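Let us work through a complete example step by step.
Step 1: write down the sequence.
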Amino acid sequence: MLFNSFDFLVFLIFVFSLFWSLPNSKKWILLLVSSYVFYMYWNPIYILLLLFTTFLDFYISLHLTSSINPNKSKKGLMLSLFLSLTILFSFKYIGFFLEISKELFKFFGVGYDIPEVSFILPMGISFYTFQSISYAIDVYRKKIKPETNFFLFSLYITYFPQLVAGPIERTQDLLPQLKNKHFKLTPDHIKIGLFYILWGLFLKSVIADNAALIVDSIYSDISNNSGGKLAYASFVFTFQIYTDFAGYSFMAIGISKLFDIQLMSNFKSPFLSESITEFWKRWHVSLSNWVRDYIYIPLGGNRIGKLRTYTNLFISFLIVGLWHGASFNFIIWGFLHGAMMVLERIFKLNIPTQYTVVRILKTVFTFSIVSLIFVSFRIKDVRELFLTYENIFTLEWRDLLFWFADNRYNYVFIGIGILVVVELYLKKKSLLKLTKASNFIFLPFCILLFFLIILTGRSEGAQFIYFQF
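Step 2: predict the structure and record it as tokens.
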């Protein structure tokens, strides 16, 4: 069930109406049932996997990981991590692993024929697995107490607005809200919630879905397209993936606001970043924070010398790449981001940033690097990746300018123009700033978004890119 579909609109109206007609003590039960219905709408059989993993994490954390006996607690954590990662590996990475093994056998002249194994990837498995892992680790670290109510814990794992594409919420932030006995609906909740949904839908249907038409048409025939076309498509794709994922995240926040639940902000104007380091503080914030807290810092962070710091950064970003998908292009994507983070630390330049022109140049440079790295996110074949880079780096600027000129009135660029104006207005602050603007600005802006969605948005309800992760 997609957020940008009529089915979900009916579902949300029904759940919202019933939620606020129930006593506060029963509201979480409705959210739990609704979350399971929401997930089963996609593929009913995988609800069994979700229930199984939820039960394992709940039982092990309650009876083993939370133990005051250090050995028992550690064994519980290891068991929980092993089972969670084994399930994730079995569904997401087994095919990739067997493919690599097959190539290695071929290289060494071993004639063993490895059978092909593939599964339908359970939607959102990377998101809810990382969320359950963070719960197990926090219980082990004694940062939180284990939840004793299985159904409340199930709601924390399956809460439908963020179940399939995040943000990856922490137990101490989300679970107490789900237990809340004092839910309250105010005019501000409705105003903020509906605006976040409207903004997210605008990003998805007007920018991301229209951008997909441009990107797919060019990337479908890489060998016969010029460097100018590929550079143009790569620029558009950078906005496509941002508005697609951010659109989902903003809608998730807005939907939750209608239930008096606050989700974290997953995007904070990332394309206004002046470095790759800053970019990762603003892009997919829940994942970058998760990797920092549960991988980078436990590895030693930046506390054990420069070489170890650089190694930890590479390991962290390789994991970020693999988290996104089981193929070499995602490993390359993570490697390139790790390399840029390391290079920024090695060649740290004390460039004065009080001058606007310097900050603009740094922002443009960072955006250009991010766009080039995102090419590896879009390409599935490594050979095509290098061909794309070769064409882009040998492009004729006149060719690129002609493509922009010919397409400057495309709906995508109208949407991108509005997005840029909004983010410059926000100045890296929360979208809440817009909801507090004068009604002479806010209401006409909402009307503009609404009509752009109706008139220029794609009505098919295309799937969100991050659903595949």
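Step 3: interpret the result. The CA atoms of residues 11 and 17 lie 10 Å apart.
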